Amino acid sequence: MAVDPVTTSAPAPGADYVETASAAYRDILQIIETVEPRIAAATRKEIADQRDSLKLIASENYASPAVLLTMGTWLSDKYAEGTIGHRFYAGCQNVDTVETVAAEHARELFGAPYAYAQPHSGIDANLVAYWAILATRVEAPGLADAGVKNVNDLSEEGWEKLRAQLGNQRLLGMSLDAGGHLTHGFRPNISGKMFHQRSYGTDPETGLLDYDALAKAAREFKPLILVGGYSAYPRRINFAKMREIADEVGATLMVDMAHFAGLVAGKVFTGDEDPVPHAHVTTTTTHKSLRGPRGGLVLATPEYSDAVDKGCPMVLGGPLSHVMAAKAVALAEARQPAFQAYAQRVADNAKALAEGFLKRGARLVTGGTDNHIVLLDVQSFGVTGRQAESALLDSGIVTNRNSIPADPNGAWYTSGIRLGTPALTTRGFGPDEFDRVAELIVDVLAKTEPAAAASGPSKAKYSLADGTAERVHAAASELLAANPLYPGLTL
Ligand code: DSN
């Protein structure tokens, strides 16, 4: 039996049923092959590619076979718009069970009074949350006298007035180049259009969140919603301080913990660093550090729970019952003690990765990490983030380019590479392997040069010294072979 590389005492997720899972996958792929062989081939190729590359995308992971298999069932065939016990379709008794179990695990895992398991993604979870906050807090002007309590009860005339009023609601979130997410008020996203938005950044010297500057911005701007959380900020956040700021200006604190939900679930982030006791509404995805299926969750205090519960059909299409079932399985896994050891190892490995870069002279945004993210500034290598991302991919290292604060290359070409440890930690990598990963990345970037396009300098074209890609990929393959993905799973 494969042993969990994280704890060396508990079985790896799936280790005890890996033979059954192998047989199931072989049968499934054969069935798919008879209908559309290209899909069977792409599915086989995907696991081969994932097995033989260093997956460092901070928002990705590997779910257990139990989570993956749960998604492939007939629960997919059922419509269940509405909420538990109150559906717009008949025959939803089993979906009610599934959603109840998923929500129960989420409440208990995160210590939240209420959990909503339907969102199909993190963006959907944020939209549900924004709408619920509006529905709870925004009274349509002049309609309160007519007995209208909130925006969900509006008449056509009320909607007309609300549309005018929505432009004046304010949202304050972290800027994209400081590590915030598109849905935290970025102008090209609906969140930057439905609200009057403003962003807070980080200290230009340290790259760290400056709570005094944030408080000042909140006092000036007086947002309805203060958004906490990030996609590319390599540090922990003090959510108790954020709540104090929100309370002072009368804002609702919404925290998007999509990236670090696994560290919250695994009790690495506790006290002031755990958003759930401090935020009015907390949103997350389930597939990043939490290691579940692709999807979202919303957690809320009682004040907001009724409005969140109306997420479908207000904001969302019919629930994906098969995915909610997989969320329940993943959340049950995350409640096991082995998950806490995993989460601690994710954070320890990020530190080892950061130290590996620093000792080789590379520059990191904020000078290090205390979560699962390392943000490498590639300017000292003389390349853009886009060139670095491509050269690394050629060498079997999968990363994503990312803006850094005040990025001279903008959000498309960028000057940074975002790296995360959740996926390779699931494979069993420890601090020594992450140090070697840093060595390989520095090796590739030191041998990458910008190349000119026919029209002049290019921020995308690059050349990699002969033999580097092959040599580094071979070294990566050695690390990967020692830490196999889905050990024992043969297709
Ligand atoms: N795509 C996710 C990420 O990579 O952080 C956020 O939406």
Automatic annotation (TrEMBL):
GO molecular function: glycine hydroxymethyltransferase activity; methyltransferase activity; pyridoxal phosphate binding
Domain Serine hydroxymethyltransferase-like residues, every copy: 33-136, 169-441
Chain positions recorded as (6S)-5,6,7,8-tetrahydrofolate binding sites: 176, 180-182
Residue numbers marked as site, Plays an important role in substrate specificity: 287
Keywords of the record: Amino-acid biosynthesis, Cytoplasm, Methyltransferase, One-carbon metabolism, Pyridoxal phosphate, Transferase
Known partners and oligomeric status: Homodimer.
Record PANTHER family: SERINE HYDROXYMETHYLTRANSFERASE, SERINE HYDROXYMETHYLTRANSFERASE 1
Protein name: Serine hydroxymethyltransferase
